[in-house]
Amino acid sequence: MTEEHPTPRLAVLGAGVMGVGITTLALGQGVPVVLVETDPAKRADAPARVERELRTAQLMGVRSGAPRAELVTAARPADCAGADVVIEAITEDAGLKAAALTEVSEAVGEDTALVTNTSSIPVDELAAKLPRPEDLLGVHFMNPSYLIRTVEVIRGSRTSARAVDSVTRLLTALGRRGVLVGDGPGFVTSRVLHRMINDAARIVQEGRASAEDVDTLMQDCLGHRTGPLRTADLIGIDNLVDSLRVLHERTGDEGCRPCELLLQKVRDGEHGRKSGQGFYTYTGVVS
Protein backbone atom coordinates (compact mmCIF):
# COMPACT_ATOMS: atom_id res chain seq x y z
CA MET A 1 0.00 0.00 0.00
CA THR A 2 1.03 3.67 -0.30
CA GLU A 3 1.10 6.67 2.03
CA GLU A 4 -2.12 7.85 0.39
CA HIS A 5 -3.68 4.39 0.81
CA PRO A 6 -2.15 2.85 3.97
CA THR A 7 -2.48 -0.83 4.78
CA PRO A 8 -5.86 -1.44 6.46
CA ARG A 9 -5.89 -2.40 10.11
CA LEU A 10 -7.83 -5.66 10.40
CA ALA A 11 -9.34 -7.50 13.35
CA VAL A 12 -10.85 -10.98 13.03
CA LEU A 13 -13.32 -12.26 15.58
CA GLY A 14 -13.16 -16.02 16.08
CA ALA A 15 -10.30 -18.52 15.70
CA GLY A 16 -12.30 -21.31 14.11
CA VAL A 17 -11.68 -22.68 10.62
CA MET A 18 -12.82 -19.52 8.84
CA GLY A 19 -11.24 -17.08 11.28
CA VAL A 20 -7.86 -18.79 10.98
CA GLY A 21 -8.22 -18.99 7.19
CA ILE A 22 -9.03 -15.28 6.82
CA THR A 23 -6.17 -14.43 9.19
CA THR A 24 -3.82 -16.57 7.10
CA LEU A 25 -4.91 -14.79 3.93
CA ALA A 26 -4.36 -11.36 5.46
CA LEU A 27 -0.94 -12.11 6.97
CA GLY A 28 0.26 -13.62 3.70
CA GLN A 29 -0.81 -10.46 1.87
CA GLY A 30 1.05 -8.21 4.32
CA VAL A 31 -2.02 -7.08 6.29
CA PRO A 32 -1.55 -7.30 10.09
CA VAL A 33 -4.30 -8.93 12.13
CA VAL A 34 -5.62 -8.80 15.67
CA LEU A 35 -7.25 -12.22 16.09
CA VAL A 36 -9.80 -12.21 18.92
CA GLU A 37 -10.81 -15.52 20.50
CA THR A 38 -12.57 -15.77 23.86
CA ASP A 39 -11.78 -19.48 24.35
CA PRO A 40 -8.32 -19.69 26.01
CA ALA A 41 -7.37 -23.05 24.49
CA LYS A 42 -8.33 -22.02 20.94
CA ARG A 43 -6.60 -18.68 21.40
CA ALA A 44 -3.38 -20.35 22.57
CA ASP A 45 -3.41 -22.78 19.63
CA ALA A 46 -4.29 -20.18 16.97
CA PRO A 47 -0.75 -18.97 16.11
CA ALA A 48 0.44 -22.53 15.41
CA ARG A 49 -2.60 -23.22 13.26
CA VAL A 50 -2.01 -20.02 11.30
CA GLU A 51 1.64 -20.99 10.77
CA ARG A 52 0.57 -24.37 9.35
CA GLU A 53 -1.87 -22.67 6.98
CA LEU A 54 0.77 -20.15 5.90
CA ARG A 55 3.13 -23.01 5.05
CA THR A 56 0.36 -24.68 3.06
CA ALA A 57 -0.34 -21.44 1.18
CA GLN A 58 3.38 -21.10 0.45
CA LEU A 59 3.59 -24.66 -0.88
CA MET A 60 0.55 -24.03 -3.09
CA GLY A 61 2.13 -20.87 -4.48
CA VAL A 62 -0.75 -18.59 -3.44
CA ARG A 63 1.09 -16.25 -1.07
CA SER A 64 1.99 -12.80 -2.32
CA GLY A 65 5.54 -11.47 -2.30
CA ALA A 66 4.68 -9.16 0.60
CA PRO A 67 6.53 -9.71 3.89
CA ARG A 68 4.51 -11.74 6.37
CA ALA A 69 2.56 -9.31 8.57
CA GLU A 70 2.23 -9.33 12.36
CA LEU A 71 -0.34 -11.43 14.22
CA VAL A 72 -1.61 -10.36 17.65
CA THR A 73 -4.02 -12.59 19.57
CA ALA A 74 -6.51 -11.09 22.02
CA ALA A 75 -9.25 -12.26 24.34
CA ARG A 76 -12.04 -9.69 24.11
CA PRO A 77 -14.04 -8.05 21.32
CA ALA A 78 -13.05 -4.74 22.91
CA ASP A 79 -9.50 -5.47 21.70
CA CYS A 80 -10.73 -4.72 18.16
CA ALA A 81 -10.52 -1.01 18.97
CA GLY A 82 -8.39 0.79 16.38
CA ALA A 83 -9.25 -1.52 13.49
CA ASP A 84 -10.46 -0.14 10.17
CA VAL A 85 -12.43 -3.33 9.51
CA VAL A 86 -13.56 -6.07 11.89
CA ILE A 87 -14.56 -9.42 10.39
CA GLU A 88 -16.81 -11.61 12.52
CA ALA A 89 -16.22 -15.32 11.81
CA ILE A 90 -17.88 -17.16 14.69
CA THR A 91 -20.39 -20.00 14.64
CA GLU A 92 -23.47 -19.76 12.38
CA ASP A 93 -25.88 -18.68 15.10
CA ALA A 94 -27.75 -15.40 14.64
CA GLY A 95 -27.99 -14.65 18.37
CA LEU A 96 -24.29 -15.23 19.01
CA LYS A 97 -23.28 -13.23 15.94
CA ALA A 98 -25.50 -10.28 16.88
CA ALA A 99 -24.17 -10.27 20.46
CA ALA A 100 -20.54 -10.37 19.30
CA LEU A 101 -21.05 -7.66 16.68
CA THR A 102 -22.84 -5.46 19.22
CA GLU A 103 -19.93 -5.77 21.65
CA VAL A 104 -17.47 -4.91 18.89
CA SER A 105 -19.61 -1.97 17.73
CA GLU A 106 -19.50 -0.51 21.23
CA ALA A 107 -15.70 -0.79 21.29
CA VAL A 108 -14.80 0.72 17.90
CA GLY A 109 -15.31 4.10 16.29
CA GLU A 110 -17.88 5.14 13.73
CA ASP A 111 -15.26 4.85 10.97
CA THR A 112 -14.82 1.11 11.54
CA ALA A 113 -16.65 -1.17 9.11
CA LEU A 114 -18.15 -4.33 10.58
CA VAL A 115 -18.25 -7.46 8.45
CA THR A 116 -20.08 -10.69 9.05
CA ASN A 117 -18.72 -13.77 7.32
CA THR A 118 -22.07 -15.53 7.63
CA SER A 119 -22.89 -17.97 4.84
CA SER A 120 -26.66 -17.81 5.29
CA ILE A 121 -28.04 -15.24 7.78
CA PRO A 122 -29.36 -12.05 6.12
CA VAL A 123 -27.25 -8.97 6.82
CA ASP A 124 -30.33 -6.87 7.62
CA GLU A 125 -31.39 -9.39 10.28
CA LEU A 126 -28.07 -8.92 12.10
CA ALA A 127 -27.85 -5.18 11.44
CA ALA A 128 -31.22 -4.63 13.12
CA LYS A 129 -29.64 -5.68 16.45
CA LEU A 130 -26.72 -3.23 16.23
CA PRO A 131 -26.47 0.33 17.58
CA ARG A 132 -25.15 1.47 14.16
CA PRO A 133 -26.71 -0.81 11.52
CA GLU A 134 -25.12 1.25 8.75
CA ASP A 135 -21.67 -0.09 9.72
CA LEU A 136 -22.47 -3.71 8.81
CA LEU A 137 -22.14 -5.62 5.56
CA GLY A 138 -21.46 -9.21 4.65
CA VAL A 139 -18.38 -10.68 3.03
CA HIS A 140 -18.66 -14.40 2.43
CA PHE A 141 -15.12 -15.78 2.18
CA MET A 142 -14.91 -19.34 0.90
CA ASN A 143 -12.74 -22.00 2.50
CA PRO A 144 -9.78 -21.99 2.17
CA SER A 145 -9.89 -18.22 1.83
CA TYR A 146 -6.20 -17.93 0.94
CA LEU A 147 -6.84 -20.10 -2.14
CA ILE A 148 -10.21 -18.83 -3.44
CA ARG A 149 -9.84 -15.33 -4.84
CA THR A 150 -13.48 -14.29 -5.27
CA VAL A 151 -15.84 -13.41 -2.42
CA GLU A 152 -19.50 -12.50 -2.11
CA VAL A 153 -20.10 -8.98 -0.80
CA ILE A 154 -23.58 -8.44 0.62
CA ARG A 155 -24.84 -4.90 1.13
CA GLY A 156 -27.77 -4.59 3.51
CA SER A 157 -30.53 -2.04 3.03
CA ARG A 158 -28.91 0.25 5.61
CA THR A 159 -25.24 -0.37 4.84
CA SER A 160 -23.42 2.94 4.36
CA ALA A 161 -21.23 3.85 1.40
CA ARG A 162 -18.42 4.49 3.89
CA ALA A 163 -18.54 0.89 5.12
CA VAL A 164 -18.56 -0.42 1.54
CA ASP A 165 -15.55 1.77 0.68
CA SER A 166 -13.60 0.52 3.73
CA VAL A 167 -14.24 -3.10 2.85
CA THR A 168 -13.40 -2.49 -0.82
CA ARG A 169 -10.00 -1.12 0.26
CA LEU A 170 -9.45 -4.17 2.45
CA LEU A 171 -10.33 -6.60 -0.35
CA THR A 172 -7.92 -4.77 -2.66
CA ALA A 173 -5.17 -5.16 -0.06
CA LEU A 174 -6.04 -8.86 0.24
CA GLY A 175 -5.94 -9.35 -3.53
CA ARG A 176 -9.58 -10.46 -3.60
CA ARG A 177 -12.35 -9.74 -6.08
CA GLY A 178 -15.68 -8.91 -4.50
CA VAL A 179 -18.95 -9.63 -6.29
CA LEU A 180 -21.74 -7.45 -4.88
CA VAL A 181 -25.04 -9.32 -4.41
CA GLY A 182 -28.39 -8.63 -2.79
CA ASP A 183 -29.27 -9.55 0.78
CA GLY A 184 -31.37 -12.58 1.66
CA PRO A 185 -31.00 -16.06 3.22
CA GLY A 186 -27.94 -17.78 1.76
CA PHE A 187 -27.25 -14.92 -0.70
CA VAL A 188 -26.14 -16.66 -3.93
CA THR A 189 -23.49 -19.31 -3.25
CA SER A 190 -24.99 -20.93 -0.15
CA ARG A 191 -28.55 -20.76 -1.46
CA VAL A 192 -27.46 -22.79 -4.52
CA LEU A 193 -24.57 -24.89 -3.19
CA HIS A 194 -25.88 -26.01 0.19
CA ARG A 195 -29.12 -27.38 -1.20
CA MET A 196 -27.11 -29.22 -3.87
CA ILE A 197 -24.86 -30.76 -1.20
CA ASN A 198 -27.95 -31.79 0.78
CA ASP A 199 -29.38 -33.50 -2.31
CA ALA A 200 -26.04 -35.21 -3.00
CA ALA A 201 -25.89 -36.51 0.58
CA ARG A 202 -29.49 -37.73 0.30
CA ILE A 203 -28.55 -39.78 -2.79
CA VAL A 204 -25.77 -41.47 -0.79
CA GLN A 205 -28.18 -41.99 2.12
CA GLU A 206 -30.63 -43.74 -0.21
CA GLY A 207 -27.88 -46.08 -1.41
CA ARG A 208 -28.09 -45.02 -5.05
CA ALA A 209 -24.42 -44.06 -5.35
CA SER A 210 -21.29 -43.73 -3.24
CA ALA A 211 -19.88 -40.35 -2.26
CA GLU A 212 -16.99 -40.97 -4.66
CA ASP A 213 -19.36 -41.72 -7.54
CA VAL A 214 -21.51 -38.65 -6.88
CA ASP A 215 -18.43 -36.42 -6.83
CA THR A 216 -16.95 -38.05 -9.94
CA LEU A 217 -20.15 -37.47 -11.91
CA MET A 218 -20.44 -33.87 -10.77
CA GLN A 219 -16.78 -33.21 -11.57
CA ASP A 220 -16.49 -34.99 -14.91
CA CYS A 221 -19.98 -34.38 -16.31
CA LEU A 222 -20.88 -30.98 -14.88
CA GLY A 223 -17.51 -29.37 -14.20
CA HIS A 224 -17.82 -28.97 -10.41
CA ARG A 225 -14.23 -28.42 -9.30
CA THR A 226 -14.16 -30.75 -6.27
CA GLY A 227 -17.57 -32.42 -6.17
CA PRO A 228 -20.28 -31.47 -3.67
CA LEU A 229 -19.39 -33.98 -0.96
CA ARG A 230 -15.68 -33.17 -0.92
CA THR A 231 -16.84 -29.57 -0.70
CA ALA A 232 -19.01 -30.50 2.30
CA ASP A 233 -15.96 -31.94 4.02
CA LEU A 234 -14.05 -28.73 3.34
CA ILE A 235 -16.85 -26.48 4.61
CA GLY A 236 -17.28 -28.63 7.72
CA ILE A 237 -20.39 -30.80 7.88
CA ASP A 238 -21.37 -29.27 11.24
CA ASN A 239 -21.15 -25.78 9.70
CA LEU A 240 -23.10 -26.98 6.66
CA VAL A 241 -25.92 -28.36 8.83
CA ASP A 242 -26.11 -25.08 10.76
CA SER A 243 -26.36 -23.16 7.50
CA LEU A 244 -29.00 -25.51 6.06
CA ARG A 245 -31.10 -25.05 9.20
CA VAL A 246 -30.91 -21.28 8.80
CA LEU A 247 -31.96 -21.56 5.15
CA HIS A 248 -34.82 -23.93 5.97
CA GLU A 249 -36.12 -21.73 8.78
CA ARG A 250 -35.97 -18.52 6.75
CA THR A 251 -37.13 -19.78 3.34
CA GLY A 252 -39.42 -22.71 4.16
CA ASP A 253 -37.69 -24.68 1.38
CA GLU A 254 -37.92 -28.37 2.34
CA GLY A 255 -34.93 -29.04 0.12
CA CYS A 256 -32.85 -27.19 2.72
CA ARG A 257 -33.93 -29.37 5.65
CA PRO A 258 -30.70 -31.24 6.56
CA CYS A 259 -30.93 -34.87 5.51
CA GLU A 260 -30.47 -37.65 8.05
CA LEU A 261 -27.02 -38.67 6.77
CA LEU A 262 -25.64 -35.17 7.41
CA LEU A 263 -27.23 -35.09 10.86
CA GLN A 264 -25.79 -38.51 11.70
CA LYS A 265 -22.30 -37.44 10.66
CA VAL A 266 -22.55 -34.44 12.97
CA ARG A 267 -23.71 -36.66 15.84
CA ASP A 268 -20.78 -39.02 15.16
CA GLY A 269 -18.25 -36.18 15.13
CA GLU A 270 -17.51 -36.75 11.43
CA HIS A 271 -17.25 -33.07 10.55
CA GLY A 272 -15.06 -33.39 7.47
CA ARG A 273 -11.47 -32.44 6.82
CA LYS A 274 -11.02 -30.62 10.13
CA SER A 275 -11.94 -33.74 12.15
CA GLY A 276 -10.16 -36.22 9.87
CA GLN A 277 -13.37 -37.96 8.81
CA GLY A 278 -16.42 -36.89 6.84
CA PHE A 279 -17.53 -38.34 3.54
CA TYR A 280 -13.81 -39.10 3.10
CA THR A 281 -10.95 -39.93 5.47
CA TYR A 282 -8.07 -37.48 5.93
CA THR A 283 -4.70 -38.14 7.53
CA GLY A 284 -2.38 -35.72 9.27
CA VAL A 285 -5.24 -33.35 10.10
CA VAL A 286 -5.13 -31.34 13.32
CA SER A 287 -8.47 -29.74 14.14
Automatic annotation (TrEMBL):
Which SUPFAM superfamilies is this protein grouped with?
6-phosphogluconate dehydrogenase C-terminal domain-like (SSF48179), NAD(P)-binding Rossmann-fold domains (SSF51735)
User: InterPro entries this protein is in?
Assistant: 3-OHacyl-CoA_DH, 3-OHacyl-CoA_DH_NAD-bd, 3HC_DH_C, 6-PGluconate_DH-like_C_sf, 6PGD_dom2, NAD(P)-bd_dom_sf
Looking at the record, the residues that make up the 3-hydroxyacyl-CoA dehydrogenase C-terminal domain are 186-282
Q: Which residues cross the membrane?
A: none
Q: Which UniProt keywords apply?
A: Oxidoreductase
According to its UniProt entry, the protein's GO biological process terms are: fatty acid metabolic process
Domain called 3-hydroxyacyl-CoA dehydrogenase NAD binding: residue spans: 10-183
Q: In which pathway does it act?
A: Lipid metabolism; butanoate metabolism
**Which Gene Ontology molecular-function terms are recorded?**
NAD+ binding; oxidoreductase activity, acting on the CH-OH group of donors, NAD or NADP as acceptor
Site Important for catalytic activity — annotated at 140
Instruction: List, alphabetically, the Pfam families matched.
Output: 3HCDH, 3HCDH_N
What is stated as this protein's family in its record?
Answer: Belongs to the 3-hydroxyacyl-CoA dehydrogenase family.
| Cross-referenced PANTHER family | 3-HYDROXYACYL-COA DEHYDROGENASE FAMILY PROTEIN (PTHR48075), 3-HYDROXYBUTYRYL-COA DEHYDROGENASE (PTHR48075:SF5)
Give the protein's recorded name.
Glyceroyl ACP dehydrogenase
Name the source organism. Streptomyces albus
Which lineage is the organism of this entry classified under, starting from the top rank?
Bacteria, Bacillati, Actinomycetota, Actinomycetes, Kitasatosporales
